[in-house]
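Example 3.2
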Amino acid sequence: MGIVQFDIRCPQCVGGMLADPHIDWSFDDLITELNTIDEKLQASTLVPLHFSKTQSSELSANDKNRKAFVMRVSDDEGYDEDEDENNSRHLVVDNRFDCKDLSDGVDSDCESADETQWSLMDKGGVIEGALIELSHDHQLSVADEIRNRISAFRTDLTNEKEKFTNALSRADKCKEARLELDRKRDLQFQRQIAEELDNHLTDVQRHHEYKSQIEEKKIRDDAAVEEAKRKQKAFQEEKVRQEKMKAEEAKHQAEKKKEEEAKAKAKAKALEAERVAKEAADLAADVAERQKAADALNASKVANIKGSSSGEQIKASEGNVLKASNNAIKMEEKRVQLYNEMVGKDFAMELVSNKEYGKLATQMGRRIKTISGAKENVRTKAVELVQLINSPLPQSANIAIFAEKLISLCTSASSNGQLYGYGHVIVMVTSKFPLAMDILLAKLNKVCIFTVPKYLSYSETAFESRDAYYRAIGYQEKDGKLETTDDYLMRLTNQMKLYGALVQTQVNGIRNLHGIEEGWKWLAMFLNALPANLHTLVALDAFIEMAGFGLYRRYKNQFEKLINIISGNFIRALKERKDARLIKVLANLEEYVESNKFKTEPEGWRLRDSLDSSNTDHIFKETNYQQPYHNSYSYRR
C-alpha cells in the first residue's frame, strides 16, 4: 500500500505547545493511547457514526513482534485548491504493517487479513466527512484537556513538593530550636546544680568552721579557767607575801612621804621666785620698749613738728635724713640686689620696648583686674597666672612682669575684699615660685618706702629741690609734672593695704613666705624708727585696717600693748601738732584703736564661696581720710 496524505485541520501551535515532527512511540504505547481515545469518543459522541466497530482495536500478544508504527508530521506547508485558504498540516502515515482500516483519524483497528475492512482509499460522503471533522475536533479538545490537566497536576505536584520541602525545613528549624532550648535548659539546670552544690559545700564548710570555733572556744575557756585558778593561787601567795612585807613598807612610805613634802615645798618656793623674776623682767622690758618708742617719737617731734603757717617742713639735720631700723635697711638692700641680679635695673624700659613682654603684661593685667573676693575666682586666677609665668619667656622676667602689673593695678582696687583676694593670689603664686615674693617686695619697697619701713626727711644738702625730695619718697610724674599730694596719698593707701593684706593672709596647705611674723616686725620697726606725720599716719592707718585683725588673732595681748603705744605716743604726738590736714585720718585711727575694731573681722577678710555679682560693678569709694584731700584743701609743696 502506498503513502496516504491527510490534511490535519488543527493549528501548528496549540496552547503554546508545538507539534513534534519526530514523535517516536512504541507500538504498545500507541495502541493504549488509541484505545483510550476510542473509549472517550464512544462515550461522548451524540451523533451515531456511519459505521460501527465490529472488533476491538486491541492487538494480541503475538502482534507485538511486528514493526513499530511511526507517525510523523511534515514541516512542509502548502495550499490545496479544494480546501479553504487556511494553512494545514499534512499527516504522512507510513504503513509498514498490514492494516486496512483507519477510522476517524484517531482510532485504528488492525484486524486480521481475512476480515472485511474499510478501505482507507474509499471516499465517503459529505456527512461522513463532517463527522470525521467533528470527531477530529473533539479529539483535539480532549487532548488539550488532557494536557491542561497534566499541566495542572504537575503544578499541584510542584506546589505540594515545595510545601513539603518548606514543611521539612520548618520542622528542621523547629527541631534545632528545640534542641537549642533543651541545651540552654540543660546548661541552666547544670548551673543551678552547681550553685546548689556550692551553697551546700559552703554551708558544710561554715558548719565545720562553727564547730571548730566552738571547740576552740571551749579550749580557750578551759585554758582561761586554768589560768584563773593559777592566778588566784599566785594572788593568794602574793597576798601572803605582801602582808608579811606590809609593816616594813609602811615604815618606808612614811619616810619617803616626808622627803617628798620637803622637796615640794622647796620647788614651790623656787617657782614663786622664778615667776616674780619673770614678771619683773617683763615689766622692765615693757618700760624699756615704751621709753624707746617715746624717745623715737620725741626725736621725730624735734626734727619735724616745727613749721611755718604755710605747712612746709623745716630743714632736718644733715645726718638724720634717713629714718629706719638697720634690719629694715639690710632687708631692702638684699631685695634690691636680688632684683637687679635677676631682673635688671632697666627692666621697666625693656618692658615698654619688648613686644613679647608687652603682650604678656597685657594678659596678666587682664587676669589681675578681674580678681575678686571669691574663693573660686582667686583659685582660677592664681592657676592662670602660674601658667603665664611658665611661658617660654625667661622666668625672672615673667615674675617681674607679674610684680609690676599687680602693684600698679592694686592702686585702682575697688574694695578691701579685692585686696584680700590679691593677697591670696600672691601667696598661691609665690608658693610655686618663691623668687616671686622677693621680687614683689623689692618692687613694692621701691614704689612705697613705708613698706620697708623707712622715711626720708627733707634736707637742702641731701636734695636738690623739693621736687627731688618728693620723687625720692614716691611721688610720680604725669605729663612732666608731679602728682598732687591727694593722688599720692590715695596710691599710698592702697599700696599699704596690699602689704597689710599680704602679711596676714593664710591659705590652707600653703605657707606664706612673708607671713604674720613679718607684719609684727614691720609694725615694731615702724613705731620705733619713723616719725609721726601725715605720710606715716596714712601708712599706719591703712596697714592696721587690713592686718590688725590677723595680728590680734596671732599675738593677742602683745598686740594690744602695741595698740596702747600707738594710742599713747603716736596719736598723742599728732594731736599736739594741731594740723588740720590730720584731723580726719587721725579721728579714723583713734576710733579704730579706742573701739577695738581689731577684734572684729573686717569686711572682705573672709573669701566668699561664690562670686557676688552685686560687688563686681561698684565704683571706688574713698576712705575717710581721702575725702578732705579732695574737698577741703590742696597740699602745698
